[in-house]
Amino acid sequence: MYKVKTFNLISSKGLERFSRDKYEVSSDASQPHAILLRSHKLHNEVLDNSVLAVARAGAGVNNVPVADYSKRGIAVFNTPGANANAVKELVLAGMLLSSRGIKPGIDHVSTLHNISDAAELHKTLEAQKKQFSGSELKGKTLGIIGLGAIGSLVADMALALGMKVVGFDPALSIEAAWRLSSEVQRAENMHALLAKCDYVSLHVPAIEPTIHMINADALAQAKEGMVLVNFARESIVDPEAVANALDKRILRTYVCDFPEPVFYGREDVIAMPHIGASTAEAEENCAMMAADQIMDFLENGNIKNSVNFPNVAMAREEGQRIIFANENVPKVLGNVLSVLADHNVNVIDMVNKSRGDLAYNIIDVEKMENGHVIDAINSIEHVTSVRLIN
Ligand SMILES: NC(=O)C1=CN([C@@H]2O[C@H](COP(=O)(O)OP(=O)(O)OC[C@H]3O[C@@H](n4cnc5c(N)ncnc54)[C@H](O)[C@@H]3O)[C@@H](O)[C@H]2O)C=CC1
Ligand SMILES: O=C(O)CCC(=O)C(=O)O
User: Fold this and answer.
1) 277 pocket-lining for ligand 2 (C-beta < 6 Å)
2) Which of 27, 61, 263, 353 is deepest in the core (most CB within 10 A)?
3) Is the fold of 1-83+278-309 the same as that of 312-390?
4) What is the ipTM of this complex?
5) Distance between CA atoms of residues 174 and 202, nearest Å
6) Could you tell me the distance, in angstroms and rounded to a whole number, from the CA of residue 24 to the centre of ligand 2?
7) Closest residue (by CA) to atom 17 of ligand 1?
8) Does any ligand 2 atom lie closer than 6 A to the CB of residue 58?
């Protein structure tokens, strides 16, 4: 029986993927083989040694101490693109909220509840509505920083609305580049993008080079009156610098999914409670993808969409499957094969792949009589995790 421990509310569509005869899935599972979570922060959790995999039902893995887990041979997964459409739609809502008098207009209407005569109400509204006029998105320039799953959908949406789109992404993958519309203009650097855009939307992961990438220096380059949209992470902007830029009217509005105390009471900040991915569809997509990845990893050792391990897949053969991870240094695989030879274990098939400092291996062997092989592999220097699947 495999055990999966969950944090956060995981869509039942995902939880239902785990068959009851093979999996026990609960928020209080002890000694779990895998963790399935959304935004819960794992940095302060003591993880049982039983854990082999952590799957983030979502995109950002800044709530997971990936480097520590890599050293322990724990595979960390995410669900690329599974919630991208949900975020894209809220980016559009954010841009519209910043450009039209939608929220103040609605708030104003709710203050008029004491007018019981319909004709008087309509007359009052018509007389006052000029306070709530705005401007259109069509013809404006949107800058997108980070052109991955979400950024590319935001680009398509903005182009469809008649906006000009400028993008910046120095780490763009080939796959993402293929997805991107040729109408997106490339900015040489972030400052060039900030200088010419009416709206700028952030879609980068929270990693060391992006922390506070929107700071006082960056904002000093911004086109006056720019709207900054942040559905990425709070740490990507320096909140004090954003507040200063709003004070100086360099920024017209800051739209974000990450409220900060420094923004309380500001009418030029539109803050949402981290709901970019909070749609039934996105929650289902993420949970199902994460569940499938956990199952294929636990049952077959296959890896898809890991953020620290290489993608690996090998069809199952008869016999048993040895899976081990190691530091990516010479001789480890050779030493493991020597152990197998010393124990008269016949190899049927194998795959060895590396990613950065890590290597991951699947070796299918004929059924072993000797129970000490796994212990012997475990004691080889630089092996970080090993297990046997029958
Ligand atoms: N508000 C919410 O509920 C959600 C927020 N997010 C956030 O959005 C982020 C992006 O999500 P996806 O588009 O799905 O990820 P993704 O991995 O598909 O795209 C991220 C892109 O950022 C680029 N990038 C990395 N460093 C950069 C830099 N210094 N400058 C410019 N571009 C850079 C990468 O090359 C990549 O193309 C996630 O990491 C997460 O933090 C994601 C989903 C929901
Ligand atoms: O699970 C959520 O609601 C948050 C989604 C998110 O921030 C992400 O996927 O990076």
Assistant:
1) yes
2) 61
3) no
4) 0.99
5) 20
6) 24
7) 148
8) yes
Nearest to 55 by CA among 311, 313, 290, 298: 290
For a mutational test of ligand 1's pocket, the pick from 204, 215, 231, 237, i.e. the residue with the most ligand atoms closer than 8 A to its C-beta, is 204
Q: How much distance in Å is there from the Cα of 75 to the middle of ligand 1?
A: 20
The alpha carbons of the chain give a radius of gyration, in whole angstroms, of 26
Half-sphere exposure of 359 (CA within 13 A, CB side): 17
φ/ψ region of 341 (left if φ > 0, alpha if ψ in -120 to 50, else beta) reads: alpha
Confidence check: pLDDT of 9 > 80: yes
> Between 102-111 and 84-99, two packed helices, what is the crossing angle to 10 degrees?
70
The Cα–Cα gap between 162 and 166 comes to 13
Ligand closest to 257 (CA) is 1
Residue range 350-381, pLDDT digits in tens: 999 999 999 999 999 999 976 799 999 999 99
- pLDDT tier at 317 (50, 70, 90 boundaries)? confident
Determine the pLDDT at residue 81.
98
Domain 85-100+135-271 has CATH 3.30.565.10: no
Pocket test for ligand 1, best of 38, 203, 212, 256 (most atoms within 8 A of CB): 203
> pTM value?
0.96
Residues 6+ apart with CB under 8 A from 212: 235, 236, 237, 238, 241
- Nearest alpha carbon, ligand 2 atom 3: 277
- Ligand 1, residues at Cβ distance < 6 Å: 58-60, 80, 83-84, 87, 145-151, 168-172, 176, 203-206, 209-210, 231-233, 257, 274, 276-277
Per-domain residue ranges of the chain? 1-83+278-309, 85-100+135-271, 312-390
Half-sphere CA count of 304, side-chain side, radius 13 A:
14
| Nearest ligand 2 atom, CA 60 | 10
Q: Tokens in use for 123?
A: 């007359």
What CATH number labels 312-390?
3.30.70.260
Structural tokens at position 256: 């974000």
Ligand 1 atom nearest to CA at 210: 29
CATH number of 1-83+278-309: 3.40.50.720
Position 318 confidence tier, pLDDT thresholds 50, 70, 90: confident
